[in-house]
Amino acid sequence: MNKKSLVVGLGMTLVLAVAITPMSAQERRWDGADDLPVNPLACPGEEMAMDMEGEEMEMPEYDGGLAQNAPDKAGQPITLVDVPKLIGIGYFDATALGMQQAAEELGNVTVITDGPTEANIDDQITVIENYLAQGVDGVLFAANDPVAISPVLRRALSSGVHVVGYDANSEPDARTWFVNQAEFNGIGKAMIDALAAEKGEDASFGIVTSTFTTPNQARWIAEMWAYANKCYPNMTWLETLEAQEDSVLSFNQATTLLNKYGDDIDGIFGMTSVATPSSADAVTQAGLCGEVAVVGLATPNAMKPYVNSGCVKSVVLWNPIDLGYAAVYVMRAVVDGTLVPGAMSVEAGRLGELMIVNGSEVLLGAPFIFNAENINDFDF
Amino acid sequence: MALQEKSKLQPAPDDGLVVRIRGALLSQEGVLFLILVVSVIVLSLNTDRFLQPSNLLTQARLLVEVGLVALPMTFIIITGGIDLSVGSILGLTAIMIGIGWQTLGLPLELAIVLALAIATLCGFVNGLFIVRVGVPPLIMTLATLALYRGLAQGISEGRSVRGYPEWFTALGQGDFLGLPTQIWFLIVGVIVSWVILARTTFGRTLYAIGNNETGARFSGLNVDRAKLLIYSYSGFMAGLAGWIFVSRVTTTRSDMGSGLELDVIAAVVLGGTSIFGGTGSITGTVIGMVLIQLLKNGLALNGVTQDATIIVIGLVLIFAILVNNFIQGQRQKS
Amino acid sequence: MTTATLVKQKTSVTLRLSHFIGVALAALILISYYVLPFVVQPERGPSDIATLTGGRGNNEFGLAVNGLVMLPFAGLGALLLGVWNLLSPRHERVIALLLAVCGFVGLTYYVIFFRQYLETSADYLSSMSVGFWLMLGACVALVAQVAVPRRPAERDYTPRAVLSNQEMVLAAGLILLVIVVGIANPRFLAERNLSDVIQGHAYIAVAALGMTMVIVTGNIDISVGSLVGLLAIISGRLATDTGQIWLAWLAPLFVGALFGGVNGFFVAYMRIPSIVVTLGMLSIIKGILLIWTAGSRVVDLPQGFFLAQMRPLNVPMPIWFMVVLTIVVALWMRYSGLGRAMYAVGGNKEAARLSGLNEQRIVFQAFVLNGVFVGIASVLYATQLTIIQATPPPNLELTIITSAVVGGVSILGGTGTVVGAAIAAILLNVIRTAMVFINVSPFWLQAVQGLLILVTVLADLLRRRRQRR
């Protein structure tokens, strides 16, 4: 009797597995990109034309939300809470530092940074709920999921709390403004161009990302894909592997790519500030520096050893300190009423005037490329 | 461990009101309830926002997913088993709702029913292997923890499903009769589970299995059927929690509910259910989950950040059990 | 009587089969040494084998063709066969002689090989590493066939008996998986990849050793993931702040033992269920880690710190740690008083107590030892990369527990060996890598992993059930 039920049980599991497999078999893209529309930038050499075009483009309508019946606190002290995707990682440590700098400069802003201990959408919502209950004047957030976070943010807006996003967006109407570190297509272009410069226009490459469900990473990969298709049709896209936010797993995945493709791989993209240094380590320890290029998003401090040893030529990132800094200035401007729908730019302390794009996004600037010459000037 | 067993099984001797009250206060749940009351008082000293109805209702809304899953988990742990796959079942349910609705083009209502059926099936498969093949629950659910999560990820291919209609989000975000809608599910779930566990033969069977499975079998109880039922129940509740969760956050992702199992187990064991089986109650579980939720919230309102909060939660978990063990030990002696 | 004769008949049949395997392996070794490389590339002499196997898999495909790639497998097979024959009460003269000749040829080869290595200081060892040592061991075992006296007959050495434990099932599954994936994608079999795959989970295997002890006593520890993260940072901070590398390597062991001791104290003496204590500790340690590091990673580590990147005898250090510790712990668990006591406590607490064992102290010691092994694992983890990230690997505790459990450690306590846990840890990484090599969509990776865990566990249950009959 036991044997029979065992067979039945095994059979059921198999049927379950087999029944579900074909559903995904049609889609053969394993690149970790999302399905949203892409907008690749112009290829190198055509940029001038594009710029001209860009200026003629009309500014879209403001599509952000507004805090309802918010108390008028123009010029008065305000308390903000900053809720990053998770606490305890270098990147959001840097944004929090930038916020403290801005708060100090402004003098009338207090910022508390608190967030979930894991990049978990539910925990992040809970943290925001707690601070709403506690009573704050504004919420700064970096969303773990653009949609999931929106209901709680809408509730914040409707109860008179200002909401400004940075790093990872929510749905536009769930916040007032979003400080965009660099546009997705800008990152895509910078990454692909960096690889092309290092390994030629027919390079083949693999990607190590965090998870396929992480919205920002999926967006960047989609833009990279679109840009590479448009500008470097001879590039070969090998494979994207997941590595969570786990440094040793990232190392193992990058090593697997190297071993699997042997001489056929010219470059590895790291999509997070954990994956990039680990990939660089994998290349270094395999003795392939120079043969296999590593390009990625990472903070300079993590990448200094590899850039200084010459194994990594370029690291793409914005300055997260500036990102946090700008977010606080934008929030202050919203509270003071100096940044209203329809504005074309906003004043942000030492960063000067920041442009408004896409209706309700404040653009920090173009992505910055760290290399051996400049990386030692940065400390974050 | 032998010390704390049975307190629940034997009806308290009827020695007058004082003794009974004293007994109730010193029982597992009583002690825990005292801890809860003390924490609430301490936490509300510094801030008047903690005890405001709006805050408490929001907290209740956030509690529902863990709470729903904690009910069958109490049953399972009482029988000496465990179910680690609940978080993954929640994720799979979420994905099945999204896929059924958007990819397969089913009406959303049907997709929900289908997803709940699949969730129940997932739990049933756990139970089937545990009962028929004899795989230890921890190993079985450890394997399905990976398997179900993997199915969710494979089916969704890492894509989210968004754009649910208005009526769908009412469950997770709306109110019904003055309370957040999903609370009603929890209330009904708690009452039903409490009645089942405390007032039916089936409930007695669960305790019997936890205390001595072989004995229960020999005394003619249908152990296999009971286990199959509770694991299926666990799957169903995880599915229900998945539905509510999707409705609350209006999006579907394959990584939803990861880590849920630990939150649930923490609530259940804090509620005095022994991981070795045989003791525990729904009342305890309810107090346990409320205590954790209010601690998290109250600490945050008192300006304690998350990193410090998890330390406090860890300490409370250990010391609540410690204090309870001590008191139950004293009671046994006297 | 009838059953006895039946068994005897069966064994004689299988022994004949093993004759065949022995001859085949011997032939394979001979062929791969002396013939195949030079058939494919006759212009290269025997000393050029290194260049054939070298490089980072530029010629893996060539390898698969010229047969050199079969060396490690043939070596492993010969080694197992040799050891089996050595221990077997029904020791066969003919097969022993055959294997001994084969071993002698191999040893001669290594003498030449080594002399040339010393003379030219060429990079032979680096290209041969795992295969080299495996083959050397095999050859020694084979030669020893003739000399070593027989052990008295103790038990049956039929394949069935040998396959009747979880370690062997896992090892067989592991080898099968490697061969199947190797056929699908020969690059999988490249020296470099195999050693990378083993190295990748070596630290998990080490942590699984400690976990095995805890589980054998009937407990569990889910705080190990956070603990690895914390100890890695401690190790890194000590290295950068004091510059004392030995201190940085050893301190995690002690701090790990300390945390293990705290866990053990509450579990053993305070009688709190281990899942509660370690669940609490999980969040306590994580909170400490977050507050203490505030997300800053450790950089600028001193040169000599990178223990896991060292390659003594050209085998990565983590593999050394894993192999040596597994063997030591396996023997210790089997023969030492405390090791046996752990099984006794896990098997039947009351009986253990009645037979005079101090159950509380044994559980406490198991947790302390677990802490030490987590410490070792965290040093391997910390020294693997040039920087140490402040966030512990997510779900690490699940991977470690899964390794121990799949390795045949019954969660109810009392049974299981550390060898199985180590093999299972490697198996998990082999599965992950194999999926990539045979182009399974990464979306399905976790599902396949879960399914394989299930299959392993079911196979084990089925086997045990059959044994009971």
* Element string of chain A (H = helix, E = strand): HHEHEHEHEEHEHEHEHEHEHEEEE
What is the count of β-strands of chain C? 0
Overall body shape of chain A: elongated
Which structural class matches the secondary elements of chain C?
mainly alpha
Overall, the morphology of chain C is globular
Which structural category do the helix and sheet elements of chain A fall into?
Answer: alpha/beta
Cα Rg of chain A:
22 Å
Any idea of the CATH topology of the largest domain in chain C?
A: ABC transporter involved in vitamin B12 uptake, BtuC
> For the residues shown, what is the average pLDDT of chain A?
82
The CATH superfamily of the largest domain in chain A turns out to be: Response regulator
Number of domains of chain C: 2
Largest sheet of chain C: none
Termini Cα gap of chain C: 18 Å
What are the secondary-structure elements of chain C, in order, as H or E? HHHHHHHHHHHHHHHHHHHH
Strand order of the largest sheet of chain A: 2-1-3-4-5-13-12-11
Q: What's the quaternary structure here?
A: heterotrimer
What's the total helix number of chain C?
20
CATH architecture of the largest domain in chain C: Orthogonal Bundle
CATH class of the largest domain in chain C: Mainly Alpha
How many DSSP E strands of chain A? Answer: 14
Structure, described:
The complex is a heterotrimer of chains A (380), B (334) and C (469). Chain A is an alpha/beta fold. Chain A folds into 2 domains: 78-181 and 320-364, Response regulator (Rossmann fold); 184-317, Response regulator (Rossmann fold, 3-Layer(aba) Sandwich), CATH 3.40.50. Helices cover 42% and strands 17% of the residues of chain A. Chain A has 11 helices and 14 strands. Chain A has helices spanning 2-25, 47-56, 90-106, 121-134, 150-158, 184-199, 215-231, 247-261, 275-285, 300-308, 320-336; strands at residues 78-83, 109-113, 138-141, 162-166, 177-180, 204-209, 236-242, 267-270, 293-297, 314-317, 345-347, 353-357, 361-363, 368-370. In chain A, the strands form 2 sheets. Chain A has an 8-stranded mixed beta sheet, with helices on both faces. A 6-stranded mixed beta sheet of chain A has the order 7-6-8-9-10-14, with helices on both faces. In chain A, α7 links the parallel β6 (204-209) and β7. The radius of gyration of chain A is 22 Å and the shape is elongated. Chain B is an all-alpha fold and 334 residues long. Chain B has a single domain, classed as ABC transporter involved in vitamin B12 uptake, BtuC (Orthogonal Bundle), CATH 1.10.3470. Helices cover 75% and strands 2% of the residues of chain B. Chain B is built from 14 helices and 4 strands. Chain B has helices spanning 17-26, 28-46, 53-78, 86-103, 108-133, 137-156, 166-173, 181-199, 201-211, 213-218, 223-249, 260-270, 282-301, 306-333, and strands at 161-162, 175-176, 179-180, 251-252. A two-stranded antiparallel sheet of chain B has the order 1-4. Chain B is globular. With 469 residues, chain C is mainly α. Chain C has 2 domains: 13-162, no CATH class; 197-468, Orthogonal Bundle (ABC transporter involved in vitamin B12 uptake, BtuC), CATH 1.10.3470. Helices cover 74% and strands 0% of the residues of chain C. Chain C has 20 helices and no strands. Chain C has helices spanning 2-40, 49-53, 60-66, 70-87, 93-120, 124-147, 159-162, 166-184, 191-200, 202-216, 224-242, 245-269, 274-293, 317-335, 337-347, 349-354, 359-382, 396-406, 418-437, 445-468. Chain C is globular and about 65 Å long. Residues 1-15, 34-69, 119-130 and 149-159 of chain C have low confidence and may be disordered. Chains in contact: A-B, A-C, B-C. At the A-C interface, α1, α3, β7, α8 and α9 of A face α9, α13, α19 and α20 of C.
